[in-house]
Predict the structure.
Amino acid sequence: MNFVKNGMVLAIVAAFAAGASAQTTYSAGGGAIIDTGAGCGSAASTPTVYPSINIAGEAGDTMSVALDGLQHTWAGDLEITLDGPSGFSTQLLDRPGAVGPACGSSADFVAGNSYEWANDGSLFSELPANPIPSGVFQPTADGGVAAAALPSGNLNGDWTLTIRDWSGADTGSIAGWSITATPEPSTLGLVVLGGLALIRRRR
């Protein structure tokens, strides 16, 4: 009898854990990357601001950001910025390989690969392979150093993705972009404890 009860407890706790560990992905549209820069590092470049993502009900999560179908024929042209609630801002990428007015890395982003940013990723290389392989990258500022980390905890609010192409000629686009919220281990533990308390009340 105890074996049956213990089995039921484990099954219910597992169900609670599965529910708590479920990720939620929020998506928005993409489009062409505006290409108006006159030369490498041109101050005349126009930022492309993509449709924003609104997150609600995510109070105990970590986040990752994916650029779906990212393609561009000169990575060193691109500065990619994520802005969020309460004035948060970080650079996902800042003209890899560029020093001053230099054009930077000529490696290509290709639409068939997967490009994602998360705090446990690797810094984006200043000299990436060409074409740039799929990967999970840490937010990376100018010079290949770490940019502000993606926030955790309360992710609620509006998030905006901006891509600035600092040089003319090479072009690109994204099919869309997304934010995935994942419950933190502490949140998972609270939900499991809640499940155990519910089981005890029902015994």
Notes: The CA atoms of residues 13 and 100 lie 56 Å apart. The longest strand covers residues 172-183. Confidence is low (pLDDT under 50) at residues 3-20, 187-203.
